[in-house]
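Section 3.1: Structural characterization of target chains.
Under the original work plan, the team committed to producing a structural model for every single-chain target entering the pipeline before any wet-lab resources were allocated. The record below documents one such target. The sequence was received from the expression subgroup and is listed exactly as submitted; it comprises 281 residues.
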Amino acid sequence: MRKFFLFIVLMISGVGFVNAQSIGDYTTINYEGYSLKFTVTSVEPAECEVICSTKPTVYVSITIPSKVEIGNLECTVTKIAYGAFDMGSSNGKYIENIIIPNTVTSIGNYAFRYCTGLTSITIPNNIIQIGGGSFFGCEYLEEILFEDNSKLELLGELSGSGVVGVFRNCNRLLNITIPNGVRTIGMETFYGCDKLENVYIPNTVETIGGSTFAYCENLKIIEFEENSLLEELDNRMFYKCKKLEIIEVPSRVRNIGKETFYGCSGLTSVAIPNSVETIES
């Protein structure tokens, strides 16, 4: 009798029948010129990640939806998956614009690699993490806009096999203002951005990985906000920044790594605070 009563309750409530979807279930939506695949990553709450399953061969502008139906679940799109829009070296020109919804909190590694058609990208303020190599090789990307009140904390990765910088070889990027609240800037984040001239780093940044600005040959101004929490200039941070003239090392820095200013032929002044204990050769 108890089992029968429980069965009736479950039928009335819909438990076990309505939300029949599980992690890994997916749906594919076809748009004009491309397709997007959405995969369930969580049932409660109902969330999913997105990947471009059919890559465009014609010029398109892509708007990622904030919610999709996957079976009986209405899922919020919270993640752009690893390599989601990685176009390889030949098809990247066909994506001219991508609009990311503000439901997204994470951009996976290599998400937009070789999207050479992109000239500008807006990062919504709910994104907390941007993975390594996300915009690697977006050689026509000129502008990165972070929405106000950004929640971004992690930009790239500090270690790992084959780590590639988030904006590595974005050759047309001129200026970048890291949003307030970012705590970590990963290895090689701006490696080879040879048109980059001005960078502003807020005082919330605690760690910057090695070779972050290596080969930024036109970098002239690197501004650290006052009361910076940064304690180390990692190895090769400004390697061969030939036009860098003046730098004021933040007041909490204790260690300056190997070859930090190697090849900075235009450097005329480096202000080193009393906090520095080690300058590696």
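DSSP finds one helix and 22 strands in the chain.
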